[in-house]
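In the laboratory, one determines a bound structure by crystallizing the protein with its ligand and collecting diffraction data. In a computational setting the workflow is compressed into a single prediction: the sequence and the ligand go in, and a structural description comes out. We illustrate the idea with GMT.
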Amino acid sequence: MRIGIVCYPTFGGSGVVATELGMALARKNHEVHFITYNQPVRLDFISSGLHFHQVQIKEYPLFEYQPYELALSAKMVEVVSKFNLEILHVHYAIPHAYAAYMAKQMLKEQGIDIKVVTTLHGTDITLVGSHPSYKKSVEFSVNQSDAVTTVSKSLKSQTLNLFDIKKEIHVIYNFIELEKYPEKLHDECQRISIAKKDERILTHISNFRPVKRTADVVEIFYNVQKEIPSKLLLVGEGPDLQIARLKAKELGVYDSVLFLGNSVELEKILCYTDLFLLPSETESFGLVALEAMAAKTPVISSNSGGLPEVNVHGKTGFLSNVGDVMDMAKNAIYILEDSEKLSKFKKNAREHSKKFSIEEILPFYEKIYKDLDAERDK
Ligand code: GMT
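The predicted complex, in structure-token form:
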């Protein structure tokens, strides 16, 4: 099929899911057109069947806020009609679902019936979407989509609680490409470049927004390193990175924390890692936890949102109440104190991640596309 994908091209989870989905669809001989303001960070143009169309904004001094949705919907119209697209799949409702609705109306005038799929990723519903400034427009544009998906059962029920949604919501989990995390790479990984032989490596990867509770990450690590020699790797950038630095200095562990910045080499970093920390305030799914598990890394997380659908308490890691850093540290020590126990958790994590392999999940999206296409022919 010919599919347009609209997403944020950044390091955020929704952009990563959209990009990986597009690349996987192209490998299955679909023609995929990305419509974004920059080339998505994980987009690999070596694969054929992939196209990128940049949304360009005409800046004008009158505007305090540049009208991105306008440029985006115009680009969607141009690409859909030029390449005869059948589906527009928008990731993250704000403002993509709204722009897709506008494009759909414009295309109708040209006699084109484009089918719009909206995937809700989390904060587009919870923290941002339900804010009174956006709520009505988000609700309207989600209801106007031809199909709606969420990335977890938890996000589906939050969406139904917060909005008056008249559409059926399909739950399609985040997915993982297991080949990116080969078992062999794990055996060869050069962890000695990061930590001493007797040290454990704990890692947190995020965009360091308040929702990630970065200070909790450092506090958990502080309590762990009192019992077990260890290092903390902080990967990513964002507004709360400074909070993490200050916390590490305040607790006297700054020298044991490595700040690695944004990275496209997550597989390598996770390969070094013994334990992944994700104490988020809310997390619709927690793609990064799944990536960690695929790389044989158990996860210490909060129990908020969709995290219990990914991280299995006592098997792939542990879940604690949001903010309970002492419980998280206790669970981390329990896993790390004994190499045999750690190996068992690592094995379980990898095994469980297989449930979310791209081969398992991709057909659910393809079915939605096919069903919508068949609807058009009726
Ligand atoms: O939370 C982030 O860091 C980014 C955010 C996004 O929208 O880009 O991620 C959301 O979407 C991911 C992919 O579906 C989910 O795995 C994340 O859990 C979700 N983040 C939140 O709900 C906070």
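DSSP finds 13 helices and 13 strands in the chain. Keep in mind that any predicted model is a hypothesis to be tested, not a measurement.
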